[in-house]
UniProtKB/TrEMBL annotation:
<dbReference type="GO" id="GO:0016747">
    <property type="term" value="F:acyltransferase activity, transferring groups other than amino-acyl groups"/>
</dbReference>
<dbReference type="InterPro" id="IPR016181">
    <property type="entry name" value="Acyl_CoA_acyltransferase"/>
</dbReference>
<keyword id="KW-0808">Transferase</keyword>
<dbReference type="InterPro" id="IPR000182">
    <property type="entry name" value="GNAT_dom"/>
</dbReference>
<dbReference type="Pfam" id="PF13302">
    <property type="entry name" value="Acetyltransf_3"/>
</dbReference>
<protein>
    <submittedName>
        <fullName>N-acetyltransferase</fullName>
    </submittedName>
</protein>
<feature type="domain" description="N-acetyltransferase">
    <location>
        <begin position="13"/>
        <end position="177"/>
    </location>
</feature>
Length: 200
């Protein structure tokens, strides 16, 4: 598995390797969603938490443990997602660290971004792509299930969140031989969004 950290794009979203050019747009977007950071994430990018969290992302990028992408919509960074802990020998990778501005939720951006990230990973030789979701995050669990990912189990008391809450983590995965069916499902969803735009 050889994952390139390069731009990915389709009709609905552009994913760019996250860097300094995205910083202030991303900061502004994060500051519009303080409730989510307080309740559903193990870390926060809002307010005074932004700069240390940004620095951590850059350190992880340099170490190769996180390949972050700026989620760019209408020319502005409105979210983040990426590849975590890629293991070339085992041909496995996690898609995670994902957050979208509230205005983008429930529309085409998430399936469009997942189509890009999953396609790129499997094209690069991945055998398994996994997702880890906070057990209380019903929206994210539903979104990953809708992709066609298989829930494997729940790791109890898996992670300490920045607020002090201890979270249970739900594991999901998609395997290489499952990807064609998942891809077909994603492309059908995106085609429906295309028709909505055409009819608008």
């Amino acid at each position: 598995m050889q994952l390139a950290h390069a731009p990915l794009e389709n009709r609905f979203v552009r994913l760019e390797p996250m860097g300094e050019a995205h910083r202030e747009d991303f900061r502004a977007a994060c500051n519009e969603d303080e409730v989510t950071w307080q309740t559903l994430y193990p870390f926060s990018y809002a307010g005074e938490h932004f700069d240390p969290s940004w620095a951590r992302v850059q350190r992880d990028r340099e170490a190769g443990t996180f390949l972050p992408f700026a989620v760019v919509v209408d020319g502005r960074c409105r979210g983040i997602s990426g590849y975590l802990t890629p293991e070339a020998t085992n041909a496995t990778v996690e898609i995670g660290g994902t957050w979208y501005h509230p205005d983008l939720r429930g529309g085409a951006v998430n399936p469009a971004a997942k189509r890009l990230l999953l396609g790129h990973a499997f094209d690069a030789g991945a055998r398994r792509v996994q997702f880890k979701v906070d057990a209380i995050n019903a929206r994210s669990r539903a979104a990953v299930t809708k992709l066609g990912a298989v829930q494997e189990g729940i790791l109890r008391q898996d992670r300490l969140c920045w607020t002090g809450r201890i979270r249970d983590t739900v594991y999901f995965s998609i395997l290489r031989d499952e990807w064609p069916e998942v891809r077909e499902r994603l492309e059908a969803r995106l085609a429906a969004f295309e028709r909505e735009l055409a009819d608008a």
